[in-house]
Amino acid sequence: MVEENIENLVAEKSLFDEFKEHSISEFFRKNKHMLGYSGRLRSMTTIVHELVTNSMDACEESEILPEILVEVKKVGSETFTVIIEDNGPGIPPEYVSKVFGKMLAGSKLHRLVQSRGQQGIGAAGVLLFSQMTTGRPLKITTSTGTGKIHEMEIKMSIEKNEGDIVAHKIREGYFRGTRVEGEFKEVTYNRREQGPYEYLRRISLSTPHAKITLIDPEETTIFERTVTVIPERPEVMKPHPYGLTTDELLHISRKTDSSRISSMLNSELSRVTMKRIRDLEDYVLRDKLLENYRKSVFWDTIVGCYLNFNFTKYFEIYGHYLDKKEIEDVKMLINGLPEGLSELKTYCLKYLVVEYLIQKLDDEQLKENKNHFKKKPENFMEFAEKNYLNASLLEEFRRKLKTITKSPEDFVKALTDLGMVSEEELEKYRKSIKDLLKKTPREMTWSDSEIIVNVLQDMDFMAPSTIGLRPIGEENIEKSLETLTPEFLKTLTRKPKTYKGGIPFAVEVGLAYGGNAGRSGEDSKKMEIMRFSNHVPLLFDTSGCGLTNAVKSVNWKRYGLRSDEDAPVTIFVNLISTHIPYTSAGKQAIATGSEENEEIFNEVRQSLMICARELDTHISRVRREKEEEQKKKYVIKYAYIFAEGLSSITGRSKEEIESNIINLLR
Ligand SMILES: Nc1ncnc2c1ncn2[C@@H]1O[C@H](COP(=O)(O)OP(=O)(O)OP(=O)(O)O)[C@@H](O)[C@H]1O
Ligand SMILES: [Mg+2]
């Protein structure tokens, strides 16, 4: 036994002899595919994408109309030179080594602001890739417009995650902006769908105020701007209370300058006014009371005071449509209050929908529904929404749901009226809540944060501010998609919402049908999905992307299309947010679905369904018109024969009758 332990110790020692640390740059050197450097064409597009998005961000922040030059030259059998030049604010020379030589360094980290870049990896990734494939430095020419132009060559010290300036010349002259030149191998260039040409074409659709010139080995293309107004700069935003996590609030409490928890909530979160903080006291009181009575014999009375919804009666009427297990689930949820409050609300919503469906559907349809009753409420809602409900009906249910739970004030009043809680007890609770909010943020504990975060989710707050986010706008998307000369076009910019962590986002969609819309397939037009995040086109990882899945989740056949795939349709989806939940550092796919960030998924789906309904109306109208046209054609074809018959009966002129029939149809 002892010997065995000693042997283990020896083994551990040798194991830890090998224990090393390595830098983030070293990590990405070994995993360059994670940054988008995999496949020759994709690698080329990634280089262009990283540098162009940086130029766009820099121009946007400095409120400059972007003018960007992209040049791709073939300089050897396998080697290409890529040059990107912008008219942005320029990079102060002392920052150049950090921008291009250091991973996880940038001006956009830890800020809640809508920008194309967010990780501080892109620029250094380009240098890393050039260094790994050709061993060459990047050449940077930059000036902030001071009359001094800096020409620098930079390499990366991978182990140290630092930039090395290997040459630095300063010359006099006027220039404002940044020019990056690099040499790369393991890349290729062509005009296929996933190449830089298509990338820039799409970016010009989503950034109509930019002028982009592409000089490639074939020719020079200019993507002119269609809008000359500089969009307002996106604003830095505060986190919204919805979806805020305990850990995040605790993190905020350690950084804030506020002296009390109450003032911290007001100054560090968006939409939390001092009035809402006073309301928050009532909510905390509600939760404390519920918690206090959880194990008491009066528990059922307490829940009855809290919910206006009589589950027992409900189960009596509709019970036979539901699953036994599910009824048990709800009972368990009630017993698990208050943590389960929001979950309980989801269940209530489901029951409201069930009630509506039971009244509306026939036995046959109900049978089909029964299977779905047994599934999770979210799945059921999705099913019901897809097949039987529209968005406005769901909104109505949600509103109704609010009236089911009593306001905390009414709840406390109901308890006092029943003599369940004395004034002294209430005072004691109220004081402890006031004391909690008076604490200094640094004294805030995990459980304090948990209490506050829980009630914040239950309170009403205005939607996150719209000032910070900058959508492309319905009109501008329309202008862009009109270039496809479609027969039907609908665009929609939705109001901002939040997803996990109170992160604001908004969805914009466009749906073009007919004309040049859709991808050219072998013998028919296929559905084309153009994905964008913060106005940047996403060309890769299509199938793993939540935006694609949201588009595919719509039952397009229900909206008049013959098939989900074979249709002359171009779908434009732009997700804007202060933090886009990418699936990887390569930033090509969005992590959303029914499990993850489902708010985004649902919002994309909803917006598309709104557009699809209008498309449906359009297609039906066109079909009807066509049918009428066909009927008219028949009648006209036989008008001569009718006229002959009628003429012999009535004795009137055949020509007159025929022209009357034709006129009638016009
Ligand atoms: N063309 C440019 N003009 C001005 N500043 C720039 C330019 N390119 C990069 N920068 C600065 O360098 C920083 C680092 O750029 P980098 O691409 O590495 O990261 P990012 O854009 O912040 O995030 P991401 O990794 O998501 O692209 C930027 O945050 C910006 O401050
Ligand atoms: Mg970047």
UniProtKB/TrEMBL annotation:
Keywords on record: ATP-binding, DNA-binding, Isomerase, Nucleotide-binding, Topoisomerase
EC identifiers of the protein: 5.6.2.2
EC category: isomerase
Catalytic activity from the UniProt record: ATP-dependent breakage, passage and rejoining of double-stranded DNA
InterPro entries: HATPase_C_sf, HATPase_dom, Ribosomal_Su5_D2-typ_SF, Ribsml_uS5_D2-typ_fold_subgr, TopoVI_B, TopoVI_B_transducer
GO BP annotations listed: DNA replication; DNA topological change
CDD domains with a match to the protein in the record: TopoIIB_Trans
Pfam family, one: HATPase_c
Presence of the UniProt keyword Signal in the record: no
All residue ranges annotated as the Histidine kinase/HSP90-like ATPase domain in the record: 39-160
Binding site for ATP: 54, 86, 107-108, 117-124, 587
Entry GO MF terms: ATP binding; DNA binding; DNA topoisomerase type II (double strand cut, ATP-hydrolyzing) activity
Record family assignment: Belongs to the TOP6B family.
Subunit structure: Homodimer. Heterotetramer of two Top6A and two Top6B chains.
Function, in words: Relaxes both positive and negative superturns and exhibits a strong decatenase activity.
Identification of the protein by name: Type 2 DNA topoisomerase 6 subunit B
Native source species: Methanococcus vannielii (strain ATCC 35089 / DSM 1224 / JCM 13029 / OCM 148 / SB)
Gene: top6B
